Amino acid sequence: MGKDSKNNTLAQNRKAYHDYFIEEVMEAGIVLVGTEVKSIRGGKANLKDSYAQVRNGEIFLCNMHVSPYEKGNIFNKDPLRERKLLLHKSQINTLLGYSTRDGYTLIPVSLYLKKGRVKVALGVAKGKKNYDKRDAIAEKSAKRDIDRQMKERMR
Q1: Which residues, including other chains, have CB under 8 Å from residue 101's CB and lie 6 or more apart?
Q2: Can you give the residue ranges of every domain in the chain?
Q3: What is the distance between the alpha carbons of residues 117 and 96, in angstroms, rounded to a whole number?
Q4: Residue-wise pLDDT tens digits, 74-91
Q5: Quick one: fold of 9-128?
Q6: pTM tops 0.85
Q7: Which of 61, 64, 128, 122 is closest to 94 using CA atoms?
């Protein structure tokens, strides 16, 4: 039997939920070389400023930084190269429809393992304004205060 871990997330884009409203999330495969897979499994991937583009009926992930694998020598690729995402044609058309609408973009939310393969959770995102970010911070703070008060009363 294969091992099935509960937390198989390799990298997350925490800033995405702060800067964008994520409306829909879609799972996609990603084309990688062997040294990139080893580096990602080692936790050396960064999704911070990355985004996805639809070009010629294909989706590419841009600006995802995968640090070179230390033992990879000549097999290492460029850390910021564009990587192709693997989706069905209908899924690509759906994402193309979203991305052509005004204010929407495709943002990778996380990298994770599924049955030994690296997958990308690709989110359809709409940018937040500064007042939206302040409202979200205020709501989080209020919820934390309420939880703290409830915990004290239960003692």
Answers
A1: none
A2: 9-128
A3: 25
A4: 666 766 788 889 989 988
A5: Small Protein B; Chain: A; (2.40.280)
A6: no
A7: 122
